[in-house]
Amino acid sequence: MKKLVIGILFLGVLVMGYFTYNAVCDNKHVKNKINILSDNILKSNQEKEVYDSKMKELDEIKEKNGDKAIKYEEVEAWNQEIIEYLD
Amino acid sequence: MESRNNRIFGLVVTFLSILLIGLSYLYFYYTSENRSLRSKLTALSLVETQVYDIESIDKQIEDYKNIDEAIKNKYDEYYSNIAKLEEKITKGESSVKIAYLTFDDGPYDLTYKVLDTLKANNVRATFFVLGKDGVEDRYKRIVNEGHTLANHTYYHNIGKGLYDSVDGFISQVDKLENYLYDITGYRTTLVRFPGGSPTAKGLKDGIVNELHNRGYKYVDWTSETGDGSSKKLAQKDTWAWYQDTTRDKDIIVLLMHDYNYSTYNNLQRIIDDLKARGFIFLPLHNKSIMAN
User: Fold this and answer.
1) Contact B34/A75, CB-based, under 8 Å?
2) What domains are defined for chain B?
3) How far is CA B115 from CA A65, B112, B165, B266, in A?
4) Alpha helices of chain B — where are they, by DSSP H?
5) CB atoms within 10 A of CB B36
6) Rounded CA gap, B110 and B227, in Å?
7) What is the pLDDT of residues B48-103, one digit of tens each?
8) Record: contact A24-B26, CB cut-off 8 A
């Protein structure tokens, strides 16, 4: 009878040990995933801030040099016409 | 003995029970935490992350910062290609013909109409201008519409000192160059002698040397509408001049004046005729074989 009680208790410890081990491993795994996702989001947010500021700078310089950019494209188009005649 | 066994049994049962309770506590603790962590993970997975191409934006900013240099290089490439095309034409390797329409002595009021006609036909030409006050918008329009703005000296005072000395001539070129640059931000690279280069007579070589030292080339003409000889020349006469002087040529530099209505009234007809004869219209540049 005593052996049976000890056996049942021991078996209970083994089973609970197994489940607890799984729960701890799962916990570590999920925390790791959360850390990776959080880092990616943080990085993305930081990149977005840099990107937004660069885009603002680009818009300003485009506005300032807009006519020149059009001129560049215009000369390129003329150049392409001549290249066609050369071919 | 039995009492000892009972004590050991009691200790083992107590130990195993405590262990079981501890493990059960840990199990429920981690299971509960995992549930909340998984909810957090699901929420984070829904947050959209994006890859931003900052390198490409940097390159565009750099390109825009160097836009003046980029335009200059593109013009150089364009003019070099025209020069190659001229070479092919002169060797008979291309069926294309080139017409360089040139307008001297302006800008005048009529320059607006000339520019309108050129624009309507998508034709770019060359304007050998003089220094004039109050017509800044015309200089700017010539440049903005892709025509070549070229130097015809500031005063064009043939017979009144222009050809008295090399320095006198060059000072007028410099004066106009600076004047035009202040207005348009554009540096001229071509000069046309008022009256044509033979008018400079013995001073020609000296003037040409000085022009070359300044990076200029000069251009005369191969064809004309004759409108420089008289402002009252009839339309049929300018047309006859045009026909006579453009015959049998594959590359023409056509001299006209943007003060002359007779020429202006023929301009559309001239453009149509040249197009029908296989000419394309280009602005003059100092890499052209027509520039000396």
Assistant:
1) no
2) 96-281 (3.20.20.370)
3) 25, 5, 35, 14
4) 2-46, 54-65, 67-90, 110-120, 136-144, 166-184, 204-213, 235-246, 261-276
5) 10
6) 14
7) 878 888 888 898 888 788 888 888 888 999 999 999 999 999 999 999 999 999 99
8) yes
